[in-house]
Structure formats: structure tokens, C-alpha cells
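Quiz preparation item.
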């Protein structure tokens, strides 16, 4: 475990980054902020990167301090370990911004969705190979920010049929 004691030099925002000690290490983690040296209650912070698993829901926020796409949109990214043939359903919803979701992985696989239901985004895909896939939650326009919910699940029913019809390897045109 790690611990950092920090005194803010002025009002404003600070970016915290969590990483592993050794290259290639991965896994779930939690980040806790204990204000005023423990005088107040600790606040759990939602992870904005790391490993993503099927069945997981992430409540996150995009905004200042986040990594950006080359075109300026804020983004959060996770690694999803998948197996060939896995049919997955990814959903990104926000009432604060126009959600944009994409996944990329082995064998030049990529899929992207801007609008599934209003300003929400949904991808149902069949993974073409075993390996690590990158799932990115972002906004449609640069400068958009706010809270979001990302859910992952195994595709079932109509979503599984849609996932089976996914054509891997098309160019998303998104540069990260």
C-alpha cells in the first residue's frame, strides 16, 4: 500500500495518479482521500483507469485534469481482459454530456458508438481474440464534462445477436 501526505499550496485542483511499482502489474485498487490529516471523513474516489471486468459498473466523471484525446475531449480508459467469442455489452450514460464510447484490441479490432439512446452510448460486440482490450469513455465534443455511468455485461438476447453481427477491424477514425 502507498500513502501520500500533501498540503495544498493554494485553492484549486490537484491531479492524483495511481500506478503500480513494477511494469506490467495490474489489478483493482481504491484511492481514498482523508482531508485535513484525518480530521474529516474519508472520501472514496472512483477509478478513472485500471482493469475493467464484466458485470462491473463505474460511476465516473470527465473534466479538467483527465487525459484528453488528441482532438481535446476528456477521456477515461480501462483494460478489459477478454476471450475470443465473448459477447459483451458496454453502456455509457450521462445527463451532463453527449457520451462517446469505444473499444479496441487485438487483431486491429475496434468498435465505436456515439448515440444509442439520445445522448447515451452503447456497444454490443463479439471479441475476436483472447487478450487485452481498451475501453474508452469520452465525450462527443471537446470541452464537455460531467458525471457518467459505465456498465459492462455479457450480451444476452437481442444484444447478443447484435454482438454476433459486429464486424471487427473497421477504422473508428478516433486517434488516442
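Solution:
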Amino acid at each position: 500500500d502507498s500513502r501520500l501526505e500533501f498540503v495544498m499550496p493554494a485553492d484549486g485542483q490537484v491531479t492524483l495518479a495511481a500506478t503500480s511499482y513494477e511494469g506490467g502489474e495490474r489489478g483493482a485498487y481504491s484511492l481514498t482521500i482523508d482531508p485535513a490529516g484525518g480530521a474529516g471523513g474519508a472520501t472514496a474516489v472512483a477509478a478513472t483507469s485500471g482493469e475493467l471486468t464484466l458485470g462491473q459498473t463505474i460511476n465516473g466523471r470527465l473534466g479538467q485534469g483527465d487525459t484528453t484525446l488528441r482532438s481535446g475531449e476528456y477521456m477515461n480508459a480501462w483494460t478489459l481482459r477478454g476471450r475470443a467469442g465473448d459477447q459483451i455489452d458496454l453502456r455509457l450514460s450521462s445527463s451532463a454530456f453527449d457520451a462517446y464510447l469505444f473499444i479496441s484490441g487485438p487483431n486491429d479490432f475496434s468498435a465505436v458508438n456515439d448515440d444509442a439512446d439520445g445522448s447515451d452510448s452503447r456497444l454490443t460486440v463479439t471479441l475476436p481474440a483472447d487478450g487485452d482490450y481498451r475501453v474508452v469513455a469520452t465525450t462527443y465534443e471537446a470541452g464537455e464534462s460531467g458525471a457518467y455511468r459505465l456498465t459492462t455485461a455479457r450480451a444476452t438476447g437481442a444484444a447478443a445477436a447484435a454482438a454476433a453481427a459486429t464486424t471487427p477491424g473497421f477504422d473508428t477514425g478516433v486517434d488516442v
